[in-house]
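Final report, closing paragraph on structural work. Over the funding period we assembled a curated collection of sequence-structure pairs, and we close with a single example.
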Amino acid sequence: MDNVIEVKGKDLEDALLKASEQLNTTKDNVQYEIVEETNKTLFSILAPKYVIIKASLIVESKKIENTEKIAFEPKTLSDEEKENVKKYIDTFLTELLNAMNIKHSLEIIFEENITKVNIQSEDAKIIIGYRGEVLEALQSMLNLVVSDKAERNIKILLDIEGYRERRRKTLEELADNVAQNVIRTGKSIALEPMNSHERKIIHMNLQENEKVITTSVGEEPYRKVVVKLK
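Its predicted structure, as stored:
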């Protein structure tokens, strides 16, 4: 890969997001290989974990010399790939949740660039964890396991009982309230540490605000958003 950078993230999704930011592009235009990652086990949910990747831009065309090859992944999955991915997802989640004695049902929806998995369960609070920490860890594990078995990058969004939409609305309200406080007092406010997805919600919600700006500071898993006056 040309113009290769090495990036460390708390999971594959986080590492790809950081790589796309450094390469000034979107994640869909980043090709990568995993250099190092922590073990993917049930007990790693609460343990520190990380992924290190080598990444570069995907080029539209390139001469292939000798045996060198560049892998270009299609944006959508074939019918056969969908069936395999569905099997991988169902097997992983069913075995894990059954081991936790959690009764559940799954809904798997394939969209163009993402696979959405919705869990229905009366034990949703256990799977969500404190402010979604267990759900995020489970999503990271699911992405790594399924991508490994499918031998390509499979982006999966895991949700349970509509939690992510409720959390999004909560974060948007938080962003608006914090922005008003910053404008009123003139003092910057640092929010609690959040994952990359939740930080993005804060950034997006305030990007059109003419009086404040947002930045992210710190290292994972303690990276946080700071809201301050322009």
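Strands lie at 5-9, 30-37, 51-57, 105-110, 115-120, 156-160, 189-190, 212-217, 224-229. The two ends are 39 Å apart (CA to CA). We thank the funder for supporting this effort.
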